[in-house]
């Protein structure tokens, strides 16, 4: 969301009262945006796209994750990938038909913690059964 210069907006209203409807409309749009943003909070069992840092080096990538737990401002998640990791022991093939995953996917067996602010958008909600499957499969 773009920054709004509140001081300039108030100065415009003071000099030209006809700009009051524009100022009010702007305030409503900002408030609706803030309320919408606050409403989207990750819950255990949901799949979200999140800004996930690379394991080696700097940078990050927007990728799907399974929310395993939410604790205050952090989430414990497991990262998904659509790259075939069948020959590796650090990933498990995800059962077919999971809501929020459109491709054959693998999930990392090493959970990681992310700030809740890294969670971008919810894409599915397979719920507790997927978390239970993950916990059993990884011995978590």
TrEMBL record:
Coiled coil: none annotated. InterPro entries: PemK-like, Plasmid_toxin/cell-grow_inhib. Pfam families: PemK_toxin. The chain crosses the membrane at residues 19-35. Gene3D superfamilies: 2.30.30.110. GO terms for molecular function: DNA binding. It comes from the Bacteria. Belongs to the PemK/MazF family. SUPFAM superfamilies: Cell growth inhibitor/plasmid maintenance toxic component. Residues 119-140 are annotated as: Disordered. It comes from Pengzhenrongella frigida. Keywords: Membrane, Toxin-antitoxin system, Transmembrane, Transmembrane helix. This is Type II toxin-antitoxin system PemK/MazF family toxin.
